[in-house]
Amino acid sequence: MALAVAYPNLPDISDLLDYRPKLPLRVFSAEGDLLAEFGEERRHLTPIKEIPKVMIDAVLAIEDSEFYQHGGVSYKGFVRAAIANLGRSKSQGASTITMQVARNVYLSAEKNYMRKIYEILLTFKLEHLLNKDQILEIYMNQIFLGNRAYGFAAAADAYFGKPLKEITIAEAAMLAGLPKAPSAYNPIVNPKRARVRQLHIIDRMLENGFITAQQAETARTQDLKLNSPSSATRVHAEYVTEMVRQLMYAQYGEETYTRGLDVQTTLSSSNQDAAYRALRRGIMDFERRQVYRGPEKFIALPSTQSERDDAIDEALDEHPDNGDVLSAVVLEADAKQIKAIRQNGELVEISGDGLKPAQSGLSDKAPPNIKIRKGAVIRVTKTSKGTWEITQLPEVEGAFVAIDPRDGSIKALVGGFDFAKNKFNHVTQAWRQPGSSFKPFIYSAALEKGFTPATVINDAPLFFDASVTGGQPWEPKNYDGTFEGPMTIRRGLAKSKNMISIQVLQSIGPQYAQDWITKFGFEAERHPAYLTMALGAGSVTPMQMATGYSVFANGGYRVNPWLVTQVKEQRGKVLVGAKTPSLDETSRAIDARNAFMMTSLLQEVTRSGTAARAQATLKRPDVYGKTGTTNDSMDAWFAGYQPTLAAVTWIGYDTPRKLGDRETGGGLSLPVWISFMESALKGVPISEPPAPEGVVYVGGEWYYDEYAKGAGVSSLGLGEKSDAPSGGTPAPATEEKKKILDFFKN
């Protein structure tokens, strides 16, 4: 009677002929390294022929050793289970792998006789519809194994950080123990219980003849290296993968998280890792120079050990580690030493130089919210010497992006100090003033108006009175407050002289310059056509700056940054295949000789100017770029390139405020850029661009052909009074434009 009622109500299982489980969105680097997964179920769909025999053997040994012999229901198993259950308080199951597939795919976990009948009937139906390999393939990919992992391929990655094909007997036995109770036998959470089950499965593999006695002994003694947050070696590309997720969601909607999309990006794993480490190091170096702001929290430490451990765990759960900036609870503290404990029980002792960043918090006169004392939640980090140092999470933010100027592909992108802490992508979303790093675009415009690298301009005080400005007078300054008299444009750019940039812009006209900068991808409306444009008073994003400098790097072509090279389904169907863009005359932004001349000028900056540390450290002449520091040091930039890579660094506060009187683009952002390039340019041959047609080298300087014999602008501002030469005018006197005028001094 029950069978007659149940059979007509069985679900249609024909869809299993084309098994399509929920598969996450996966994002990969150009080299194929997994960067991120998005979806409720982490699953790597793996055909049965690609699942290693050792993994199949381990599963069959413990779950269903007669899988290939029975017809879906193991009657021997039922008898064994019944006999075993007579003498046990807990029941022993007799489910075959086919029965588990029926239950996991179509039925609830509720235990009653009717569900069991449905399970048996579905099992027979499955065995009729599918062959054994198809059923086993579904099982190996469908089963939940804890840690958000579905299927053994995802579990191998989740627990061991390795592909399934590299699994050992010992690791396979550990994973095979998970289907029975993923939480109870989780090797990370319950290592002792998982170990007992692993040994049992190894014994079962031996009994069934799947392994030899020698292999069993080796497996029993193998030391398993489990994956964990502290040991994970994943590339930090959170901002990039979020960009990809948004792109895919815009195209595929909710299917994005279940369809099994594999997205390959242009990102280089090694370059991304170098960028992440360089930016974090640069920000933390800045943080060491800041005033200590005090512990993040204070907790009371109970007297009993168990209660104290619980209190520490709870506090550190609320203040988790941030990369290599680790959290700890202070156990003892005085002016000479701090003893603290980490969540893993590691004892941290800090003394000597390691205490310097927090001296104000160790003073007897420190206010209560700053005082480092027992129960304080603090941050610590390891120094290069292996000692501990007290630190604090930074308030300052940063951005780094590197693109290949030959095609616009994004090779590295770090949108901030830490994605979990601040998801705002400063590379693409932060509109900031570029300061002096914008000057090269003004000089590029000037080259088309007859200026040459040898044009001499007077670095002397400028003053614009109310009759010129129409409002408040304006008296711009050089960054160092000094004036050095006549110098060439080459020297003026290398030393970032503001007076020279202003006179150049006034001579060519702000409107002409505003039109010119759009060739590099900048938006005219964000750069008002006033003299302050010479000092970088407009707004840019780091991505725009990387695109702009790429034009100089590639000989004058405009490139569009791009990230996705291919989108395919896990089953292999290619949905999107991007073709690498090529540079041709349709994408030309500026003349090749202009790009060559600017590269020569920017080489001077890295050789003898404000970025001289670049060539000195990298020991190669083919690096070019410009520092940028805005008024009151609110933004610190370095933008530069080598012919194969254009990269930009920015550091500043989200709500603009002073970084510090002595903080500059050369001191803050340039070291990050250099650190990245040290890694990214390893093995890359030195490549200086050849002189294009239309330029000549005369008397130690480069000229356009038509200006080589003195036809261009030979000098500007010499022998004149200190007021600015007539020509362009500063911004009219509105309050907003007055702020622009006063904002920049470098």
TrEMBL record:
Q: What is its EC number?
A: 2.4.99.28, 3.4.16.4
The UniProt record lists the Penicillin-binding protein OB-like domain at 292-396
Region (Disordered) residue ranges read 718-737
Catalysis performed (reactions):
Preferential cleavage: (Ac)2-L-Lys-D-Ala-|-D-Ala. Also transpeptidation of peptidyl-alanyl moieties that are N-acyl substituents of D-alanine; [GlcNAc-(1->4)-Mur2Ac(oyl-L-Ala-gamma-D-Glu-L-Lys-D-Ala-D-Ala)](n)-di-trans,octa-cis-undecaprenyl diphosphate + beta-D-GlcNAc-(1->4)-Mur2Ac(oyl-L-Ala-gamma-D-Glu-L-Lys-D-Ala-D-Ala)-di-trans,octa-cis-undecaprenyl diphosphate = [GlcNAc-(1->4)-Mur2Ac(oyl-L-Ala-gamma-D-Glu-L-Lys-D-Ala-D-Ala)](n+1)-di-trans,octa-cis-undecaprenyl diphosphate + di-trans,octa-cis-undecaprenyl diphosphate + H(+)
Q: Which InterPro entries match?
A: Beta-lactam/transpept-like (IPR012338), Glyco_trans_51 (IPR001264), Glycosyltr_51/Transpeptidase (IPR050396), Lysozyme-like_dom_sf (IPR023346), PBP_transglycosylase (IPR036950), PCB_OB (IPR031376), PCN-bd_Tpept (IPR001460)
Give the GO molecular function terms. Answer: penicillin binding; peptidoglycan glycosyltransferase activity; serine-type D-Ala-D-Ala carboxypeptidase activity
Q: Which Pfam families match?
A: PCB_OB (PF17092), Transgly (PF00912), Transpeptidase (PF00905)
Cellular component (GO) terms are: outer membrane-bounded periplasmic space; plasma membrane
The protein's matches in Gene3D superfamilies, at most eight in alphabetical order, are given as: Biosynthetic peptidoglycan transglycosylase-like, DD-peptidase/beta-lactamase superfamily
Report the subcellular localization: Cell inner membrane
Question: What keyword terms does UniProt attach to this protein?
Answer: Antibiotic resistance, Carboxypeptidase, Cell inner membrane, Cell membrane, Cell shape, Cell wall biogenesis/degradation, Glycosyltransferase, Hydrolase, Membrane, Multifunctional enzyme, Peptidoglycan synthesis, Protease, Signal-anchor, Transferase, Transmembrane, Transmembrane helix
| Membrane keyword on record | yes
The protein's topology relative to the membrane is: Single-pass type II membrane protein
Q: In what residue span(s) does the Penicillin-binding protein transpeptidase domain sit?
A: 398-650
Q: What's this protein's name?
A: Penicillin-binding protein 1A
Q: Organism, per UniProt?
A: Rhodoferax aquaticus
